[in-house]
Amino acid sequence: MVVVSETVVLSAPGVRARCEIAAFTGAGGRRLRYGVVRARSERRALLYLHGIESHGGWFLAAAEALAERGCTTYLLDRRGSGLNIETEPGHAHSQAVLLEDVRRFRAHAGLDALVLVGLSWGGKLAVAAALDQPEGVCALVLVTPGLVPLVDVSWPQRLGIALSLLVGGRARFHVPIEPAMFTRTPRFLEFIENDPLRLRKVSARFFLATRALDRRIHARVHTLTAPVLLLLAGHDRIVDNGRTSALLGRLPDGRLQVRLYPRATHSIQFEETDRLARDVDRFLEDVSC
User: Fold this and answer.
1) The pTM is what?
2) For the chain, what is the mean pLDDT?
């Protein structure tokens, strides 16, 4: 059962959305807040997992557009991010903790049947969560997923991360992404640059957890049972489109659908909101929950 603590109006580029804010108990007893954008007549439940620097608010416009099509979207802000940034910002101890947070949220919200939506880094967590708990996952929607990134930490950063891991791994390191890599549209770029909840640094343990997710996905992606919709941006400077397509091409025949947004940079949810909602809705029409 979802217990709503408050309803607020949140602003994002192109939208002022009424978003329910509630909380649940994640791994290790950690209280984690999340948002909900509800459809008036709900046909499907979507669980959205955000990118490394972002949070659920970056998906508000898309969630509003999907709500008009009968999709209620749960915006699960990762521990140390977004609504949960005040406690240990940018830190997650392990991939097991991140996956347990998703498991506990699904149980808390009673989501026996859902669509996992992962954007950028969140694409890793969405795929790994579907592999971890496949029961009830009707489909995956991967929006410019960071499964095979073009960006990576520098060698000096890698050395610093390795040294930090020897003493607990809580030191923070800059995320190797610049705002202009997300979008070339001035109003969206201004929003990103001035977002007080945008995460600039993550811990060494978080980087280690990311590598563990990568290994899990590369070893087991071919065992995914749910159909996958892959949305790619033609001018992406963060994601390697070719290698991402090749990785997901290991899925059984008929499980993968790909849509290319040729003019988009990376943030399809900002630049192509209506088309994204339309493509997701059409894809889900053929999905049985």
Assistant:
1) 0.95
2) 94
